Fold Tryptophanase.
Amino acid sequence: MSTVKFYSGETIPLEMHKVRIVQKLNLVPIERRLGAIAEAGNNTFLLRNRDIYLDMLTDSGVNAMSDRQLAAMMEADDSYAGSETFTRLETRIQDLFGMEYFLPVHQGRAAENIIARVFVRPGTIVPMNYHFTTTKAHIVLNGGSVEEIIVDEGLQVSSDVPFKGNMDVGKLQQLIDTHGAERIAFVRIETGTNLIGGQPHSLQNLREVREVCDRHGLMLVFDASLLADNLWFIKTREPACRDMSIREITRAIADLADIIYFSARKLGCARGGGICTRSQDAFLKMRELITLYEGFLTYGGMSIREIEALAVGLEETMDETMISQGPQFIAYMVEDLARRSVPVITPPGGLGCHLDAMRFLPHLPQAEYPAGALASALYLVSGVRGMERGSLSEQRGPDGSETFSNMELLRLAMPRRVFTLSQVKYAIDRIDWLYRNRDLVGGLRFVEEPKVLRFFFGRLQPTSDWQERLLARFRADFGDSL
Ligand SMILES: *Cc1c(COP(=O)(O)O)cnc(C)c1O
């Protein structure tokens, strides 16, 4: 992004790229959207792309690639073993992270499987700033448990704390004092904490966590899937880092880690993933499992073209204008919505804009899934698809009772370099309209509820005819506009 000032005084995030390949989008009439959301059981995961205008479900595997990435894919050196393409990626990782060893995997959760199998034993604990769904699942599967020790501000919806993703170092020390260092499998830091609104940690916080780990001989693991956004936040929000280049910040972060793993569906705008380490011992232990679960050591389940694109994508991540695009579009959206009093997570983070459904729809009890209802309502009035991150995404307790989540969020992910500013403005306008008409939005109830991961496949019904009434209000206000 560029810091160009407009004559009018307005500042907008100016795109520092141009579009050279496009995909046609549909904006179907609201009557069709009512049909589509009913067919999808009011679950945005079950909508079909042809009925969606802006797909803000996720940033995973849907970031735009650059012309240089596409060109590199054509030159990929395809072979089962010993491919030059793999060596290019390995060399890039060594250069960026200063870590000697690299293991390729097919996506982020595959790295989590390998790391958990090697380092988590029954009864061990993994302290972390915050969990991600697949991370926690792999740790628990191997008999371990997760302790979330995010700073208190991390779970406050509105705040002006710049680093809500920091780990509380005091709580880490307490945890070690209580359980003993031998019970700790490793300490995990997630860059750009996904589930609490893409909130970053500071470089200083990593240094403090490292000190505690060193004192107790603990291994420190970084989940760098959302590193690109976090690099930008460190550069712009941490005064001590203002004069460092993105490359220097990357290296300073990597120097504090024993293992870094990532999903290349996010980091590097490609597909796949990887595990990097400076420890030969850790490398040898994990290497055996790569050939078992992922593939041979020079592809790890990735296609060779993905590997080539990733090598270029990682290098492009060192470009400030490239990594600022997501955070600046998100900031534009969050700040504009906040000015219109729409409840959003602040300060703006990475990943996307998060609507606070508890404050958006205060009349709905959590048992009627406010974040799910908001996802359904927003799709209906705009064709924008978001992802419910609230109680619907939780699992019922063994006795069948609901587990109500801390936050009821509708996540509107911002795939990098995919949308234009006028599309973002459209989303803002329709969210604003929905907020003014929020009294019309009712709840949802399950009609088909799978036991496991119900948010993926579950089907729900509105608790009344609120969707028809919302449609009628839309028509009254917008006439025959889409
Ligand atoms: C997406 C994500 C993962 C999992 O990566 P996949 O490629 O989807 O398997 C792990 N950790 C974080 C922080 C993520 O955002």
The two ends are 31 Å apart (CA to CA). Residues 222 and 260 are 5 Å apart (CA to CA). The longest strand covers residues 101-105.
